[in-house]
Amino acid sequence: MLAQLGEVGPEQSLLDPDTLALMKQPALDSASLGTPAAGPRMALGLFDESRGGHRIVGHGGDTDFFHSHMQLYPDDRTGVFVTLNSAGRGAADTLELRQSLLEGFADRYFPAADTAPRQATSTAASHAAQAEGSYESARSPFSTFLTAMGLLGQTRVTARADGTVLIEPGPMSPYPAVYREIEPWVWQEVGGQRIVTMRTAGDRVEALGFESAFTLLRAAPARDAGIVLPVLLSSAAVLIVGLLAWPIGAIVRRRYRLPAPPRIGRVARVLTRIAAAAALLALGGWAVAVLTIVGLQDVPEPLIRVLQGAQWVAVLGVLPATVALVASVRHRSGPIRILGSVFVLLSLVGLGWFAQAFGLLSLDVSY
């Protein structure tokens, strides 16, 4: 921090004063960023974290156990560094502690000269309506099986009757936050100082910018957690029930000497059950693989290949499931069996759609 603030002698300094100053200047301007340039911007390795009218640049970082943040006040010859060597009990404990310390330091020793809230714009209501929707972090993989991580932690923007927007969770926070438009497409947290900017495409917002280096992209319907998760969970539930019904049904028929199911379509039904088991195996396996990688552990390539194979078996299972359904209808197997076949087919289609949308059918094992 002393070196960055220019507080060391020439013999100790690693960089020229002009280079140090350049590192603290925004790397991009409005010509390349558009509206997001009105919010915090990233410098060369440092983030604009200004507060209360004072210029602040900083950078934070996390591993599984260490959580640190540094802030520099270039115009005030001040630096602050905080580091923690455990994650705490809650998922956001270290983030809240660091923010409380750094924001409390800034507000106490470098308070804002003007604390009056800025007035909302006349375009707030219409812009809020255009911003409604689900968003996912741009800092995510989009070309490998880890693209499924985009389902975790999506942000929802909701327009409110007073022209403000509710962002859940708020940027860099585990809690919801309300924002008011103070300039066209520039929003300030109500009761706070955080700024969110919006980038538009046509008549809707396509991205939210906040905290210098972070962007939220509007999630396509095929990636919207509000749509994907219900399809995913209901499909998995149907397949689980279907697989459990197979041995239970056999036991009940044997016990009460009920007639066996028709032989027509038996092979298709067996292949459908294999596909259903493969789909559930793949779904559970991908979840374990993603959580393992998020925990900074490697997943063996053979295991990824097994999951890819199971995923393809599940997708191809749509064919025998269709044959089984047609056979049940043609031979009037009864409404319960026909309805069950319909649900199983729809579930395999739903999981196949999920696999295609989130890169689980790719033969690539990199991540």
Features:
8-stranded antiparallel barrel; 4-stranded antiparallel beta sheet; single chain; alpha+beta; 9 helices; 3 domains; 367 residues
Word description of this protein:
With 367 residues, the protein is α+β, with helices and mostly antiparallel strands. It contains 9 helices and 12 strands. The strands form 2 sheets. An 8-stranded antiparallel beta barrel has the order 5-6-7-8-9-10-11-12. Strands 1-2-3-4 form a 4-stranded antiparallel beta sheet, covered by helices on one side. Helix 5 crosses helix 6 and helix 5 (225-256) packs antiparallel against helix 9 (335-357). The two termini are 35 Å apart. The mean pLDDT is 90.
Helix content: 40-55%
Radius of gyration: 27 Å
Indicate how many domains the architecture comprises: 3
Strands of the largest sheet, in order across it? Answer: 5-6-7-8-9-10-11-12
What is the overall shape? Answer: elongated
Number of strands: 12
Multimeric state of these chains?
A: single chain
Overall structural class, as computed from helix and strand content, comes to alpha+beta
- Counted by DSSP, the helix tally is 9
